[in-house]
Amino acid sequence: MSSLVTVKENHLIQKYFNSLKNESSAISLGIGDDSAEIKSKDTFLTSVDTSLSGTHFPKDLDPFYIAYRSLIIASSDIYAMGGIPHSFLLSITHPDPNDDWFKKFSSGTQEFINDYKVSIAGGDLTLGPLSISVTFFGNPLPRVLKRSSARLNESIYITGKLGAGYQGLIKYRDYETDNQFLRPDVPKDLVKPLNPYINACIDISDGLVIDLERICNASEVGAQIQYDKAFITEGIEDLIRGDDYQLCFTANSKHHEEIKKISQDIYCIGKINNTNKVSVFDGDQEVNFKTKGWDSFSLKNS
């Protein structure tokens, strides 16, 4: 690496990341050394997520929202596992590092830190095509939630309406504060009260049908969804569009009343069965989709 690139990297890190205010007490030693020191219990959760320009967010998206969105969707995996995120590592690859871009990106990072009470532990900055990679760490709640724990006849729930993320993508240039593509509404306040009742869980990132199929495959079961306009934004295609970042989970039907008391925005959408496939019904008619959801390795996405 040339000395010019090194100087620019050090300048950007010192000016826009060393000054970020951390909200979590889990970090004993953060940015500035070769590695971070993180306080942890015997068990902790970790996940990594990469957002690529032109694939996971528009190429002309404001850097503030590139930061906020990339961080929030990366944190979603910790919530889906029954954990509370406390810190993250941030790796940025940028084709033309400059102060204007990093000032806005840093501002979005700080707002996320403030909103979710987490800390940045460190990261990396390199030259190349624009991408954001985030590694999150979190503390597990009493029950770590797996995809493989769904059981026959359990009810299937989602923590909010589907389709708002897709509508937000269509209107992302308006930069409205309630845009669910720019600021996905991760159900962070529901994770703790729901924890005693959830058996299997996943966050809905790629689309309800394909993500529920992942639970079914891991649990060796099937599922039937009963379509209802009450839990979608536009139409039945919202079941496969993704970018929702709500939780899809299974629970014993005997806990239905307790679950609904936690939030009226939680919807029961179907049942686990023994068919080894995910079926969607609109009334008595089974619905067949051309695709089950988003696949980043396929050119044919919804």
Automatic annotation (TrEMBL):
Sites where the protein binds Mg(2+) 3: 34, 77, 203
GO biological process, any: thiamine biosynthetic process
Enzyme class: transferase
GO molecular function annotation: ATP binding; magnesium ion binding; thiamine-phosphate kinase activity
Pathway: Cofactor biosynthesis; thiamine diphosphate biosynthesis; thiamine diphosphate from thiamine phosphate: step 1/1
Ranges for domain PurM-like C-terminal: 197-281
Keywords noted in UniProt: ATP-binding, Kinase, Magnesium, Metal-binding, Nucleotide-binding, Thiamine biosynthesis, Transferase
Residues engaged in binding Mg(2+) 1: 49, 124
Annotated ATP binding sites: 123-124, 147, 205
Residues that coordinate or bind Mg(2+) 2: 49, 77
EC number per UniProt: 2.7.4.16
Reaction catalysed by this enzyme: thiamine phosphate + ATP = thiamine diphosphate + ADP
Highest taxon, organism lineage: Bacteria
Binding site for Mg(2+) 5: 206
Binding site residues for Mg(2+) 4: 34, 47, 77
Binding-site positions, substrate: 56, 243, 294
Domain PurM-like N-terminal intervals: 32-138
Any Pfam family the entry gives: AIRS_C
Additional remark text: Reaction mechanism of ThiL seems to utilize a direct, inline transfer of the gamma-phosphate of ATP to TMP rather than a phosphorylated enzyme intermediate.
Family: Belongs to the thiamine-monophosphate kinase family.
Function: Catalyzes the ATP-dependent phosphorylation of thiamine-monophosphate (TMP) to form thiamine-pyrophosphate (TPP), the active form of vitamin B1.
Protein name, as recorded: Thiamine-monophosphate kinase
Organism: SAR86 cluster bacterium
Taxonomic lineage: Bacteria, Pseudomonadati, Pseudomonadota, Gammaproteobacteria, SAR86 cluster
